[in-house]
Amino acid sequence: MKLYAISDLHLTYEANREALEQLPPQPDDWLIVAGDVGDRLVDLQFALRVLCPRFRQLIWVPGNHDLWTLPEEALRGEARYLKQVDICRQYGVLTPEDEFPIWQGEGPACVIAPLFTLYDYTFRPDYVTADRAVAWAMEAGILCADEHFLHPDPYVSREAWCEQRCRISQQRLELASREHPLVIVDHFPLRRDLVHLPMVPRFSLWCGTRRTENWHLRYRAHVVVSGHLHMRSTKWIDGVRFEEVSLGYPRHWRRERGIQSYLREILPGPSHRGDRNSSAHS
Q1: What would the pLDDT profile of 84-110 be if each residue is shown by its tens digit?
Q2: Contact criterion met (CB below 8 Å) for 230 and 245
Q3: Alpha-carbon distance 80 to 206, whole Å?
Q4: Which of 68, 36, 50 is nearest to 248 (CA)?
Q5: Residue 36 and residue 14: Cα distance in Å, rounded?
Q6: Residues forming beta bridges with residue 251, ordered by sequence position
Q7: Dist CA 155 CA 66 (whole Å)
Q8: Rounded Cα–Cα distance for residues 44 and 49 (Å)
Q9: Which of 5, 70, 190, 192 lies at 20 to 30 Å from 214 by C-alpha?
Q10: Entry pTM
């Protein structure tokens, strides 16, 4: 029994939907789905109908696209997130609102900790003040669609929602890390130095929060899993393995390879432990 992960399935795209349906079963394995399943609730339902029969257990966390409210849908903010949690529970899928499971398959015993932390515009240079952050990004022609579609209701802002989600996550991680090392799962990268976007560097604003930068050490992470960047990689920082597991839009992956080749093995995973500068891309 192995633990795999993938994110950013973006099932709004027909090519991604077709490829997901062709994924061979792996009935002995668990699969982490680390956010951005799609833009609509029906995308999540489609994904779970396809994936649940193919894997022993699924674990889901939300991405920013999952939290979008498009014109044809009504649920916003936290209510939308909780509706997706309810959909997952109907399929027996674990979420950030459920008890963290203990991994008992191949590899070390770990607590799998799915999180939802969001972002707060702190992935910016120190010289850019909070009140100028979005304007700073717009100076380079960058504005994330979240500014139109991701609503923080009932919180006053995305920053306030992020603060609350980080507080909840820290309380749970503190307790879980006393028992076993953790596999921390979040859609958003935990560290600013993981966000390397050469074509759109100022998009970093919408990629995470500095509140999580030391969580891999503070909470005894064995592996950290994230997505969002559409730049698959394995990186080692402080002896901890960081896996970016995105599939992405159709232009970001090769259809002839099939989705199975993009599943990233999390546990037992590679035996190599690199230094903070080592990385591998696929």
Answers
A1: 999 999 999 999 999 999 999 999 999
A2: no
A3: 19
A4: 36
A5: 15
A6: none
A7: 18
A8: 9
A9: 5
A10: 0.94
**CB atoms < 10 A from the CB of 223, how many?**
25
Structure tokens at 245: 């597991």
Whole-angstrom Cα distance, residue 279 to residue 171? 31
Query: Number of structural domains, the chain?
Result: 1
| Residue 203 structural domain | 3-281
CB-based contact 104:179 (threshold 8 Å): no
Phi, psi of 206 (to 5 degrees): -100, 25
Q: Return the CATH number at 12.
A: 3.60.21.10
Alpha carbons within 13 A on the beta-carbon side of 172: 21
3-state secondary structure the chain: CCEEEEECCCCCCHHHHHHHHCCCCEEEEEEEECCCCCCCHHHHHHHHHHHHHHEEEEEECCCCHHHECCCCCCCCHHHHHHHHHHHHHHCCCECCCCCCCECCCCCCCCEEEECCCCCCCCCCCCCCCHHHHHHHHHCCCCCCCHHHHECCCCCCCHHHHHHHHHHHHHHHHHHHCCCCCEEEECCCCCCHHHCCCCCCHHHHHHCCCHHHCCHHHHCCEEEEEECCCCCCEEEEECCEEEEECECCCHHHCCHHHCHHHHCEEEECCCCCCCCCCCEEEC
Q: Report the distance separating Cα 137 and Cα 123, nearest Å.
A: 11
